[in-house]
Please model this.
Amino acid sequence: MSVDAQPPCALIAVRDASAAAAARAEARRVADALAWPAEAREELALCASELAMNVVDHGRARGSVMVVAAPDGAFIEVGAQDAGGGLDPARVGVPSAPGRGGGLPTLGRLMDVTTLASADGLLAWGRRWAPAADGPRRRAPLRAAIVQRARQGERVCGDAAAVERRQGGARLAVVDGLGHGPAAAEAALACLRALARALDAPLEVALRATHAAAAGTRGAALAVVDVDEVRRAAQAAVIGNCRLEVLGPEGRRSVVGVPGVVGHGASPAPRIEALALRPGAALVLSTDGLSPRARLAGPPRREDLLAGACQLFAAHAGAADDATVLVASLE
Model:
């Protein structure tokens, strides 16, 4: 698809169960516009349908489903916003009625990056990278799940998280803007945007650019990891009170952070750690809205990343602070 062309997209209002069929049809239309293979197209359509039914079952049948392709065709996203009670991570995957589909866990299983967030209801969306044009690989090697909730009483979360593809791998980040509310969110998003602009730069260079970009905001803490999918290795850094842990068959390893505030004062000198990512290993990045005791017993299966993130959130995220966790795995 030409980068100058208008990317295909759709917005479906959800008022009853009939919206599921409409969402399914629109997802197929968007996938067909990018010439996705039938299997990937049908998986995308299933996710759109499940999101529509989740709005019906849990969102008071008041909401919408969106399907949109990236301008360069690199991915398709499906998302839903509802008017329900917001995020209840303990109930993700609990069927609402006999015969219902897989719901949000289907999103986690079939999309490459899945996000659940409370924002005047539940905001749920997934990103699926375009299938490889040639070769045997049809899915991105790295998958991730993000769960996020604002501090009780706040409408805007001061945390932010992202997974971005880069040459030969991906960059994962969680950012905690100082304080709460819109000003904290502004700081966190300034950091994420800077990390995205410096996506192909070495991590230390990207962190210096992020510090400069966050000047004039409240500042932030962050955890970032650059994953090399070919070498099965990573470089990671933590600044401030975020956390980053690697879980593998041989045990767990925490990345040691450095004190400081991104965007304030002298640029913190990051401590870049080299990590080996063995088969079955998982990365867990979180803000301090989760208890320091928040730990998974072991690395979750790739198809259970969303369940693992929700498990951590349900057990260890308090209501007195913004909270975000990102769980990722490399095949």
Summary: The longest helix spans residues 38-58. The chain has six helices and 15 strands. The chain has a mean pLDDT of 90.
